[in-house]
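>> received
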Amino acid sequence: MTKEQKISNDKDLYKEFEQEAIPHMNALYNFALRLTGNPEEADDLLQETYLKAFRFFDKFEKGTNCKAWLYRIMKNSFINDYRKETKEPVKVDYEDVQNFYESIKASEVTFNHYQPDAFSNLLDDDITGALSNLPEDFRTVIILSDIEGFSYEEIADFVDIPVGTVRSRLHRARKMLYSKLFDYAKSKGFLKKSAKNK
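>> returned
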């Protein structure tokens, strides 16, 4: 392959990545923010997800669900890197970073992230705390279903589990949240008198 052919192939790859992956950036940021509960960590997780996706984009099967592929990368990155108590700096090839940003720099893609305090404004501290204390697998499905509004089939695709497992985890996650938030719901007047007396 000549140098010119390689440059042409690289440009095609950048363009494809831009069309397939970049439109999902805001949805992925929202998911990262809910996973980490911290805007700076969410930004880091988003960046890491897109760098990994870009690095392995030649492995992405065209015609399949790019959004699900990106969610899987993000979830795996979070599990592998962000749940560790001691973090090592992520080692990233500078050339990959430069190529990634060069490829999208000239486009009209906007990075409209929420303001840093949006996560805290979205949900009360009690709800945020209850969500954060759910086991990882249950938190993931409840965020994707009840906050992000994805269908069971989409979640199964994102998390790479059967639809039946999604339903089961969601049912259990909701029961866990119910028990954690019963007093909160009472204090906010969400429960009828009959429920209070049970």
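>> The two ends are 74 Å apart (CA to CA).
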